[in-house]
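pasting for ref
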Amino acid sequence: MAAAVEAASIGEYQVKAAMVYNVTKYVEWPSETANAAAAQLNLCLVGKGALGTAMEPLQGLDAKGKKILVRKLARPDDLSACQVLVLGEMEKRQLLGALEAAAEKEILTVSDLPRFAANGGIVGLVAEGGRVRFEINLTAAKRAKIKISSQLLKLARIVHGAER
């Protein structure tokens, strides 16, 4: 029984990693951010949990003509080279600080933390009824100057504003 639960859990995180990969194909960063790492797309990981580990196989994949470079950060202090920030478990104070810093640096934030998009993150991954869905916070995306394709928005649950 434990092996079945573990396998289901691993499958869920593989799906979440695939969703993050696909989201990067439908996002436009401001020209300054996009040009900062012309040959690669830096996907940075902060915090604990299985979501960060699930991102490792994205290393080297192509997204919009750029190779994905997966980087683990000990703390969300130096986000200067990141275009995508995947946030794992951390204290709420650290989370809010990371979201603030990411918005200022025009970084796409993604997490599967509860109510992530409602709390100011851009893309929240939500497991519902055995499926993984995503929420997009349009206010947070606009604040970070990130444009999200209408094709992606059609598939998402839209969240406005941020509950702090």
